[in-house]
């Protein structure tokens, strides 16, 4: 799936850019040992020009071709295979001179396996063999294994620099992947509209608190908050205006609970949840009523450009020892919320200790 996405039209430009500098340096530094052997073998000017083309011009052509391609990702893999063919070509032209040939093969193999894994590494070998065959169209195959002191010395920069470079590029890539993973993790926990915790993540926080509360005898509280007559806003001003109201409402929640340890979530539609840490019934009720008053004072019209006065109904349930699981806790807070709705809305309703009786209180301004 990831490969399909990466290989789509226009995808993979960053891959092309990532390979650009390593290719310039790899082929650039690789030209020195190759050049030293070509010099020993007395090659003519056209061969030297071809070598300089591969070392100095090809990396830029590959970059432009990769960036302009409709499928940059695929184009870059073709470029990498072309690199492998270049390596094979010059190895054959050097008569398989041992040290430079091994170095070119190892640098190219490192490149290919880090870019495309084992399968691509093997494909690279195929391209290298094709490159060798192309060389044999120009010259008679020959073996010249002995590497001079000069060509061994000239290999040193590539030996030292190239693995560092590939390692550094791989390191930067892994950092980028980690950041993207982190971002995806945040997105998977966040409600896209309100930017609060989404239902799944909020419920997981409630579950954690439920387990911790059972173990420690803490008394956390759940507040289920539902905007009153929200449908009317949609019906009167349209769904988009309704969305804007939800965004502004979520922001008001964040502002009100800012600096507390409360966990806020969008439970669904126009219903929100607040998980308050260790508290007592009266304090939880006071917090809920204070939020209702805060909301009444908020100038939502500034945020929504609509003259709307929002009220909410809130159901509260504290964690009690007789609760079987966290969903029962949410359910009892929900029942308290519906009692608040039944009693005329703009109310706070607290579930009593037995979780079967509820005390609803209209919010005084
Ligand atoms: N704009 C918008 N509307 C939503 C969204 N999610 C749910 N709604 C709407 O919220 C409305 C909820 O309506 P009801 O469940 O009847 O509740 P209500 O009108 O708030 O009435 P009470 O809760 O009884 O006070 C429905 O019209 C839904 O379409 C959303 O993400 N954006």
Automatic annotation (TrEMBL):
Keywords: Membrane, Nucleotidyltransferase, Transferase, Transmembrane, Transmembrane helix. GO terms for molecular function: diguanylate cyclase activity. Residues 218-353 form the GGDEF domain. It holds the Pfam family GGDEF. InterPro entries: Diguanylate_Cyclase, GGDEF_dom, MASE2, Nucleotide_cyclase, Rev_trsase/Diguanyl_cyclase. Gene3D superfamilies: 3.30.70.270. The chain crosses the membrane at residues 20-41, 47-68, 80-105, 125-145, 152-171. Its EC number is 2.7.7.65. SMART domains: GGDEF. The keyword Transmembrane helix applies. It catalyses: 2 GTP = 3',3'-c-di-GMP + 2 diphosphate. This is diguanylate cyclase. It comes from Catenovulum sediminis.
